[in-house]
Amino acid sequence: MRFSIIVPTYNERENVCILADRIAQVLADRTDWYELWFVDDSDDDTPDILQALMQRDPHVRVHHRGHGRGLATAVVEGFQRAGGEFFIVMDADLQHPPEVLPTVMDRLLQGIDVVIPSRFVAGGSDGGLTGTRKLVSWIARKMGQLALHRLRHVSDCTSGFFGIRRSVVDGVPLAPIGWKILIEVLAKGRYRTVHEIPYRFIARRAGESKMSLREQWNYVHHLIRLVAQLPEDRRFYLFCLVGLLGVGVNLMVMALLLDVAHLPVLVASVSSSVVAMVHNFVWNDRVTWRGRTVRGRWHRWLQLPLFMAISAVGIAITAAAAQAFAWLHIPELYGQLLGIALATVWNFTANNRWTWAARGGPGDDELAPVVSVTREKIL
Ligand SMILES: Nc1nc2c(ncn2[C@@H]2O[C@H](COP(=O)(O)OP(=O)(O)OP(=O)(O)O)[C@@H](O)[C@H]2O)c(=O)[nH]1
Ligand SMILES: [Mg+2]
After folding, report:
1. Which end of the chain has fewer CB within 10 Å, C or N?
2. Burial of 56 (0-12, 13-18, 19+ CB in 10 A)
3. DSSP secondary-structure letter at 157?
4. For residues 48 and 17, is the Cβ–Cβ distance under 8 A?
Protein backbone atom coordinates (compact mmCIF):
# COMPACT_ATOMS: atom_id res chain seq x y z
CA MET A 1 0.00 0.00 0.00
CA ARG A 2 1.49 3.31 -1.02
CA PHE A 3 -0.82 5.90 0.58
CA SER A 4 -2.77 5.85 3.83
CA ILE A 5 -5.31 8.64 4.00
CA ILE A 6 -6.05 9.30 7.68
CA VAL A 7 -9.28 11.03 8.67
CA PRO A 8 -10.07 11.82 12.32
CA THR A 9 -13.82 11.79 12.94
CA TYR A 10 -16.05 12.92 15.72
CA ASN A 11 -19.79 12.75 14.98
CA GLU A 12 -19.53 13.13 11.22
CA ARG A 13 -22.46 10.91 10.21
CA GLU A 14 -23.50 13.18 7.33
CA ASN A 15 -20.03 13.41 5.82
CA VAL A 16 -18.09 10.15 5.95
CA CYS A 17 -19.83 8.36 3.04
CA ILE A 18 -19.70 11.40 0.78
CA LEU A 19 -16.02 11.81 1.58
CA ALA A 20 -15.20 8.15 0.82
CA ASP A 21 -17.15 8.32 -2.47
CA ARG A 22 -15.50 11.54 -3.57
CA ILE A 23 -12.06 10.17 -2.79
CA ALA A 24 -12.89 7.02 -4.75
CA GLN A 25 -13.94 9.14 -7.74
CA VAL A 26 -10.88 11.35 -7.64
CA LEU A 27 -8.54 8.39 -7.25
CA ALA A 28 -10.37 6.15 -9.72
CA ASP A 29 -7.19 5.66 -11.75
CA ARG A 30 -5.11 5.00 -8.60
CA THR A 31 -7.47 2.63 -6.92
CA ASP A 32 -4.76 0.18 -5.80
CA TRP A 33 -2.72 2.93 -4.24
CA TYR A 34 -4.60 3.85 -1.15
CA GLU A 35 -6.36 2.87 2.05
CA LEU A 36 -8.72 5.21 3.88
CA TRP A 37 -8.41 5.13 7.67
CA PHE A 38 -11.10 6.65 9.85
CA VAL A 39 -9.95 7.11 13.44
CA ASP A 40 -13.19 7.70 15.20
CA ASP A 41 -14.13 9.04 18.63
CA SER A 42 -17.84 9.54 17.88
CA ASP A 43 -20.60 9.07 20.39
CA ASP A 44 -23.43 9.18 17.82
CA ASP A 45 -24.10 6.51 15.17
CA THR A 46 -21.07 7.40 13.02
CA PRO A 47 -19.37 4.08 13.99
CA ASP A 48 -22.31 2.09 12.53
CA ILE A 49 -22.22 4.14 9.35
CA LEU A 50 -18.47 3.55 9.11
CA GLN A 51 -18.96 -0.22 9.58
CA ALA A 52 -21.46 -0.26 6.73
CA LEU A 53 -19.12 1.82 4.61
CA MET A 54 -16.28 -0.63 5.28
CA GLN A 55 -18.48 -3.47 3.95
CA ARG A 56 -19.01 -1.78 0.61
CA ASP A 57 -15.72 0.08 0.08
CA PRO A 58 -12.62 -2.15 0.25
CA HIS A 59 -10.34 0.87 0.84
CA VAL A 60 -11.97 1.77 4.13
CA ARG A 61 -10.50 0.82 7.51
CA VAL A 62 -11.98 1.95 10.80
CA HIS A 63 -10.57 2.24 14.27
CA HIS A 64 -13.10 3.29 16.85
CA ARG A 65 -11.50 4.55 20.04
CA GLY A 66 -13.81 3.82 22.88
CA HIS A 67 -11.85 6.12 25.16
CA GLY A 68 -11.28 9.84 25.26
CA ARG A 69 -11.25 12.47 22.56
CA GLY A 70 -8.74 14.48 20.66
CA LEU A 71 -8.16 15.20 17.03
CA ALA A 72 -4.36 15.16 17.12
CA THR A 73 -3.96 11.97 19.15
CA ALA A 74 -6.45 10.29 16.79
CA VAL A 75 -4.13 11.15 13.88
CA VAL A 76 -1.12 9.78 15.80
CA GLU A 77 -3.03 6.50 16.29
CA GLY A 78 -3.71 6.58 12.57
CA PHE A 79 0.05 6.85 11.89
CA GLN A 80 0.62 3.81 14.11
CA ARG A 81 -2.02 1.66 12.43
CA ALA A 82 -1.74 2.69 8.81
CA GLY A 83 0.37 0.57 6.49
CA GLY A 84 1.22 3.11 3.78
CA GLU A 85 4.57 4.36 2.62
CA PHE A 86 3.04 7.86 2.77
CA PHE A 87 0.41 9.37 5.07
CA ILE A 88 -2.14 12.01 4.07
CA VAL A 89 -4.23 13.61 6.82
CA MET A 90 -7.51 15.41 6.09
CA ASP A 91 -10.78 16.39 7.78
CA ALA A 92 -14.01 14.48 7.27
CA ASP A 93 -16.24 17.49 6.71
CA LEU A 94 -15.25 18.11 3.06
CA GLN A 95 -13.53 21.38 3.88
CA HIS A 96 -10.42 19.80 2.41
CA PRO A 97 -11.34 19.04 -1.22
CA PRO A 98 -10.30 15.50 -2.25
CA GLU A 99 -9.54 16.92 -5.70
CA VAL A 100 -6.18 18.13 -4.32
CA LEU A 101 -5.14 14.56 -3.40
CA PRO A 102 -3.56 13.58 -6.75
CA THR A 103 -1.20 16.58 -6.64
CA VAL A 104 -0.29 15.83 -3.00
CA MET A 105 0.45 12.22 -4.00
CA ASP A 106 2.51 13.25 -7.02
CA ARG A 107 4.70 15.62 -5.01
CA LEU A 108 5.29 12.97 -2.34
CA LEU A 109 6.23 10.46 -5.03
CA GLN A 110 8.63 13.03 -6.48
CA GLY A 111 10.52 12.93 -3.18
CA ILE A 112 9.17 15.88 -1.19
CA ASP A 113 9.01 14.98 2.52
CA VAL A 114 6.09 17.17 3.65
CA VAL A 115 3.37 18.41 1.27
CA ILE A 116 0.90 20.96 2.61
CA PRO A 117 -2.15 22.17 0.71
CA SER A 118 -2.28 25.83 1.72
CA ARG A 119 -5.00 28.47 1.86
CA PHE A 120 -2.44 31.23 1.97
CA VAL A 121 -0.33 30.91 -1.16
CA ALA A 122 -1.21 32.44 -4.53
CA GLY A 123 -4.25 30.60 -5.89
CA GLY A 124 -5.50 29.46 -2.46
CA SER A 125 -8.32 30.86 -0.33
CA ASP A 126 -9.80 30.49 3.13
CA GLY A 127 -13.23 31.50 1.87
CA GLY A 128 -14.98 28.97 4.06
CA LEU A 129 -14.32 30.83 7.32
CA THR A 130 -16.18 33.71 8.96
CA GLY A 131 -14.37 36.97 9.80
CA THR A 132 -13.81 36.08 13.45
CA ARG A 133 -12.55 32.61 12.64
CA LYS A 134 -10.19 34.10 10.07
CA LEU A 135 -8.77 36.44 12.70
CA VAL A 136 -8.41 33.68 15.32
CA SER A 137 -6.75 31.45 12.76
CA TRP A 138 -4.38 34.27 11.69
CA ILE A 139 -3.36 34.93 15.30
CA ALA A 140 -2.81 31.21 15.86
CA ARG A 141 -0.57 30.93 12.80
CA LYS A 142 1.47 34.00 13.70
CA MET A 143 1.92 32.78 17.28
CA GLY A 144 3.14 29.44 16.00
CA GLN A 145 5.54 31.02 13.54
CA LEU A 146 6.91 33.34 16.20
CA ALA A 147 7.35 30.61 18.80
CA LEU A 148 8.76 27.79 16.67
CA HIS A 149 11.35 28.51 14.04
CA ARG A 150 10.53 25.42 11.97
CA LEU A 151 7.06 26.85 11.30
CA ARG A 152 8.36 30.23 10.20
CA HIS A 153 8.30 29.74 6.46
CA VAL A 154 5.24 27.49 6.25
CA SER A 155 2.24 29.63 5.31
CA ASP A 156 -0.49 27.22 6.49
CA CYS A 157 1.32 25.72 9.49
CA THR A 158 -1.90 25.00 11.40
CA SER A 159 -3.58 23.15 8.53
CA GLY A 160 -5.38 19.88 9.15
CA PHE A 161 -4.59 18.82 5.57
CA PHE A 162 -1.11 17.52 4.74
CA GLY A 163 0.87 14.64 3.34
CA ILE A 164 4.15 13.18 4.65
CA ARG A 165 6.57 10.40 3.89
CA ARG A 166 6.21 7.78 6.60
CA SER A 167 9.83 8.23 7.73
CA VAL A 168 9.06 11.84 8.78
CA VAL A 169 7.25 10.55 11.89
CA ASP A 170 8.44 6.95 12.16
CA GLY A 171 10.00 6.49 15.60
CA VAL A 172 9.45 10.16 16.50
CA PRO A 173 7.82 10.48 19.94
CA LEU A 174 4.76 12.55 19.03
CA ALA A 175 2.72 13.81 21.97
CA PRO A 176 0.38 16.49 20.67
CA ILE A 177 -2.20 18.29 22.78
CA GLY A 178 -5.56 19.13 21.27
CA TRP A 179 -6.05 20.03 17.66
CA LYS A 180 -3.01 20.95 15.62
CA ILE A 181 -1.17 17.81 14.70
CA LEU A 182 0.76 19.55 11.90
CA ILE A 183 2.70 21.82 14.27
CA GLU A 184 3.82 18.72 16.17
CA VAL A 185 4.91 17.03 12.94
CA LEU A 186 6.70 20.14 11.65
CA ALA A 187 8.39 20.78 15.00
CA LYS A 188 9.61 17.25 15.67
CA GLY A 189 9.57 15.38 12.36
CA ARG A 190 12.57 14.30 10.26
CA TYR A 191 12.34 16.10 6.97
CA ARG A 192 14.29 18.36 4.67
CA THR A 193 11.78 19.59 2.12
CA VAL A 194 8.33 21.15 2.43
CA HIS A 195 6.12 21.95 -0.55
CA GLU A 196 2.92 24.01 -0.49
CA ILE A 197 0.03 23.62 -2.92
CA PRO A 198 -2.73 26.27 -3.11
CA TYR A 199 -6.30 25.13 -2.48
CA ARG A 200 -9.68 26.64 -1.75
CA PHE A 201 -10.95 25.91 1.73
CA ILE A 202 -14.70 25.29 1.65
CA ALA A 203 -17.35 26.12 4.27
CA ARG A 204 -18.53 23.18 6.38
CA ARG A 205 -21.55 21.75 4.57
CA ALA A 206 -23.03 19.44 7.19
CA GLY A 207 -22.54 18.43 10.80
CA GLU A 208 -21.21 20.60 13.60
CA SER A 209 -17.90 22.34 14.15
CA LYS A 210 -15.93 20.92 17.07
CA MET A 211 -13.77 23.99 17.39
CA SER A 212 -14.04 25.55 20.85
CA LEU A 213 -12.41 27.97 23.26
CA ARG A 214 -10.92 25.00 25.03
CA GLU A 215 -9.17 23.95 21.82
CA GLN A 216 -7.69 27.43 21.53
CA TRP A 217 -6.23 27.15 25.02
CA ASN A 218 -4.96 23.66 24.14
CA TYR A 219 -3.16 25.19 21.19
CA VAL A 220 -1.32 27.71 23.40
CA HIS A 221 -0.47 24.93 25.85
CA HIS A 222 0.80 22.79 22.95
CA LEU A 223 3.00 25.64 21.67
CA ILE A 224 4.51 26.27 25.13
CA ARG A 225 5.27 22.58 25.51
CA LEU A 226 6.93 22.38 22.09
CA VAL A 227 9.11 25.42 22.89
CA ALA A 228 10.15 23.78 26.16
CA GLN A 229 10.95 20.48 24.41
CA LEU A 230 12.92 21.83 21.45
CA PRO A 231 16.43 23.08 22.23
CA GLU A 232 16.53 25.39 19.21
CA ASP A 233 13.46 27.33 20.32
CA ARG A 234 13.92 26.99 24.05
CA ARG A 235 17.35 28.63 23.82
CA PHE A 236 16.00 31.94 22.59
CA TYR A 237 13.61 32.29 25.54
CA LEU A 238 16.26 31.23 28.05
CA PHE A 239 18.59 33.80 26.51
CA CYS A 240 15.97 36.54 27.01
CA LEU A 241 15.44 35.41 30.61
CA VAL A 242 19.17 35.53 31.33
CA GLY A 243 19.24 39.03 29.77
CA LEU A 244 16.47 40.18 32.12
CA LEU A 245 18.29 38.70 35.13
CA GLY A 246 21.39 40.56 33.93
CA VAL A 247 19.54 43.89 34.07
CA GLY A 248 18.72 43.21 37.72
CA VAL A 249 22.35 42.32 38.51
CA ASN A 250 23.54 45.43 36.66
CA LEU A 251 21.30 47.72 38.73
CA MET A 252 22.18 46.02 42.01
CA VAL A 253 25.95 46.25 41.43
CA MET A 254 25.58 49.86 40.31
CA ALA A 255 23.71 50.73 43.53
CA LEU A 256 26.40 49.01 45.63
CA LEU A 257 29.27 50.74 43.85
CA LEU A 258 27.63 54.13 44.23
CA ASP A 259 26.33 53.86 47.78
CA VAL A 260 28.93 51.64 49.45
CA ALA A 261 32.11 52.15 47.44
CA HIS A 262 31.29 55.77 46.53
CA LEU A 263 32.77 55.39 43.05
CA PRO A 264 32.23 58.05 40.38
CA VAL A 265 29.10 57.42 38.24
CA LEU A 266 30.96 56.62 35.03
CA VAL A 267 33.24 54.05 36.70
CA ALA A 268 30.28 52.51 38.57
CA SER A 269 28.21 52.28 35.40
CA VAL A 270 30.90 50.66 33.25
CA SER A 271 31.91 48.26 36.04
CA SER A 272 28.36 47.12 36.69
CA SER A 273 27.81 46.56 32.96
CA VAL A 274 30.94 44.42 32.78
CA VAL A 275 29.84 42.41 35.85
CA ALA A 276 26.39 41.92 34.25
CA MET A 277 27.99 40.78 31.01
CA VAL A 278 30.12 38.17 32.79
CA HIS A 279 27.06 37.09 34.78
CA ASN A 280 25.08 36.67 31.55
CA PHE A 281 27.95 34.80 29.93
CA VAL A 282 28.15 32.28 32.76
CA TRP A 283 24.41 31.62 32.79
CA ASN A 284 24.25 31.31 29.02
CA ASP A 285 27.17 28.92 29.09
CA ARG A 286 25.71 26.81 31.90
CA VAL A 287 22.04 26.94 30.98
CA THR A 288 21.12 28.40 27.59
CA TRP A 289 23.69 26.50 25.53
CA ARG A 290 24.20 23.65 27.98
CA GLY A 291 25.04 20.38 26.34
CA ARG A 292 26.30 21.86 23.11
CA THR A 293 29.77 20.61 22.22
CA VAL A 294 31.70 23.62 21.02
CA ARG A 295 34.66 23.55 18.66
CA GLY A 296 38.08 22.68 20.18
CA ARG A 297 39.79 23.90 23.34
CA TRP A 298 41.16 27.14 21.84
CA HIS A 299 37.60 28.17 21.12
CA ARG A 300 36.74 27.99 24.81
CA TRP A 301 39.17 30.88 25.50
CA LEU A 302 37.64 33.01 22.80
CA GLN A 303 34.10 32.66 24.06
CA LEU A 304 34.03 35.45 26.66
CA PRO A 305 35.73 38.05 24.41
CA LEU A 306 33.41 37.03 21.55
CA PHE A 307 30.38 37.36 23.81
CA MET A 308 31.49 40.84 24.87
CA ALA A 309 32.23 41.96 21.32
CA ILE A 310 28.80 40.77 20.18
CA SER A 311 27.16 42.59 23.12
CA ALA A 312 29.05 45.75 22.13
CA VAL A 313 27.57 45.55 18.63
CA GLY A 314 24.17 45.06 20.29
CA ILE A 315 24.68 48.27 22.29
CA ALA A 316 25.57 50.08 19.05
CA ILE A 317 22.41 48.75 17.36
CA THR A 318 20.28 50.02 20.27
CA ALA A 319 21.97 53.43 20.24
CA ALA A 320 21.49 53.73 16.46
CA ALA A 321 17.77 53.00 16.79
CA ALA A 322 17.33 55.57 19.59
CA GLN A 323 19.26 58.18 17.60
CA ALA A 324 17.27 57.47 14.42
CA PHE A 325 14.00 57.98 16.33
CA ALA A 326 15.31 61.24 17.79
CA TRP A 327 16.11 62.49 14.31
CA LEU A 328 12.60 61.51 13.17
CA HIS A 329 11.10 63.39 16.17
CA ILE A 330 9.62 60.21 17.62
CA PRO A 331 10.20 59.72 21.40
CA GLU A 332 13.69 58.23 21.87
CA LEU A 333 12.41 55.67 24.39
CA TYR A 334 10.43 53.93 21.62
CA GLY A 335 13.61 53.85 19.58
CA GLN A 336 15.50 52.43 22.54
CA LEU A 337 12.84 49.74 22.98
CA LEU A 338 12.95 48.77 19.30
CA GLY A 339 16.75 48.82 19.51
CA ILE A 340 16.70 46.46 22.49
CA ALA A 341 14.45 44.04 20.58
CA LEU A 342 16.70 44.13 17.50
CA ALA A 343 19.84 43.82 19.62
CA THR A 344 18.39 40.80 21.45
CA VAL A 345 17.77 39.01 18.16
CA TRP A 346 21.26 39.99 16.94
CA ASN A 347 22.96 38.93 20.19
CA PHE A 348 21.18 35.59 20.21
CA THR A 349 21.82 34.79 16.57
CA ALA A 350 25.46 35.85 16.69
CA ASN A 351 26.20 33.98 19.94
CA ASN A 352 24.45 30.89 18.64
CA ARG A 353 26.51 31.01 15.47
CA TRP A 354 29.93 32.02 16.86
CA THR A 355 30.28 32.02 20.66
CA TRP A 356 28.65 28.65 21.18
CA ALA A 357 29.16 27.39 17.62
CA ALA A 358 28.50 23.68 17.48
CA ARG A 359 31.32 21.45 16.35
CA GLY A 360 29.87 20.54 12.95
CA GLY A 361 28.49 24.01 12.29
CA PRO A 362 25.39 25.61 13.77
CA GLY A 363 22.85 23.17 15.00
CA ASP A 364 24.78 19.89 14.69
CA ASP A 365 23.37 18.65 17.98
CA GLU A 366 19.84 19.40 16.92
CA LEU A 367 17.31 18.44 14.32
CA ALA A 368 18.48 18.87 10.75
CA PRO A 369 17.49 22.29 9.45
CA VAL A 370 14.71 22.46 6.91
CA VAL A 371 16.43 22.82 3.60
CA SER A 372 13.67 24.32 1.55
CA VAL A 373 10.06 25.37 1.45
CA THR A 374 8.75 25.53 -2.12
CA ARG A 375 5.41 26.46 -3.64
CA GLU A 376 3.41 24.97 -6.45
CA LYS A 377 3.65 26.97 -9.65
CA ILE A 378 0.23 27.84 -11.00
CA LEU A 379 -0.02 27.67 -14.75
N1 LIG B 1 -11.16 11.34 16.22
C2 LIG B 1 -11.49 12.61 16.50
N3 LIG B 1 -11.77 13.47 15.51
C4 LIG B 1 -12.11 14.74 15.82
C5 LIG B 1 -12.20 15.20 17.15
N6 LIG B 1 -12.59 16.50 17.14
C7 LIG B 1 -12.73 16.84 15.84
N8 LIG B 1 -12.45 15.77 15.04
C9 LIG B 1 -12.46 15.71 13.56
O10 LIG B 1 -11.45 16.57 13.10
C11 LIG B 1 -11.85 17.22 11.91
C12 LIG B 1 -11.82 18.73 12.09
O13 LIG B 1 -12.83 19.13 13.00
P14 LIG B 1 -13.79 20.39 12.69
O15 LIG B 1 -14.86 20.45 13.70
O16 LIG B 1 -14.18 20.31 11.27
O17 LIG B 1 -12.80 21.56 12.94
P18 LIG B 1 -12.52 22.81 12.02
O19 LIG B 1 -12.42 22.36 10.60
O20 LIG B 1 -11.36 23.52 12.61
O21 LIG B 1 -13.81 23.67 12.25
P22 LIG B 1 -14.95 24.10 11.18
O23 LIG B 1 -14.28 25.05 10.22
O24 LIG B 1 -15.98 24.79 11.97
O25 LIG B 1 -15.41 22.86 10.53
C26 LIG B 1 -13.22 16.66 11.58
O27 LIG B 1 -13.08 15.59 10.71
C28 LIG B 1 -13.74 16.23 12.95
O29 LIG B 1 -14.69 15.20 12.85
C30 LIG B 1 -11.92 14.25 18.19
O31 LIG B 1 -11.96 14.54 19.36
N32 LIG B 1 -11.57 12.99 17.80
MG1 LIG C 1 -13.96 21.51 9.70
Report:
1. C
2. exposed
3. T
4. no
Tell me the pairing of strands 193-198 and 162-165: unpaired
- Tell me whether residue 279 is exposed, middle or buried, using C-beta atoms within 10 angstroms of its C-beta: 0 to 12, 13 to 18, 19 or more: middle
Q: How far apart are the first and last CA of the chain?
A: 31
Other CB atoms within 10 A of residue 161 CB: 24
What angle do the packed helices 46-56 and 16-26 form, to 10 degrees? 30
DSSP state of 116: E
H helical segments located in 148-264: 181-188, 213-229, 231-259
For residue 12, report the distance from its CA to the centre of ligand 1, in Å: 9
Q: Which ligand is nearest to the CA of 7?
A: 1
- Mutating to test ligand 1, I would choose from 43, 67, 210 the residue with most ligand atoms within 8 A of its C-beta, which is 210
Spell out, as residue ranges, where the chain has pLDDT lower than 50. Answer: 363-365
- Note the pLDDT tens digit of each residue in 354-370: 999 877 655 444 555 66
Contact status, residue 104 vs residue 163, Cβ threshold 8 Å: yes
Which helix (H) or strand (E) segment is 344 a member of? helix 332-350
Rounded to the nearest angstrom, the distance between the alpha carbon of 204 and the centre of ligand 2 is 6
Using CA atoms, how far residue 204 sits from 94, 133, 321, in Å, is: 7, 13, 48
Q: For residue 286, what are the CA distances in angstroms to 174, 247, 310?
A: 28, 18, 18
Q: What is the pLDDT of residue 129?
A: 75
CA distances from 8 to 18, 160, 210, 298, 321 (A): 15, 10, 12, 54, 50
Question: What's the residue count for the chain?
Answer: 379
Given this model, what pLDDT does residue 364 score?
Answer: 46
| Residue 143: closest CA among 133, 132, 151, 134 | 151
Q: 0.85 cut: is pTM over it?
A: no
Q: Nearest C-alpha to atom 13 of ligand 1 is from which residue?
A: 210
Q: 284, 267, 301, 275: which is closest to 352 by C-alpha?
A: 284
CA-12 nearest atom, ligand 1? 29
* Alpha helix ranges (H) inside 85-154: 101-109, 131-147
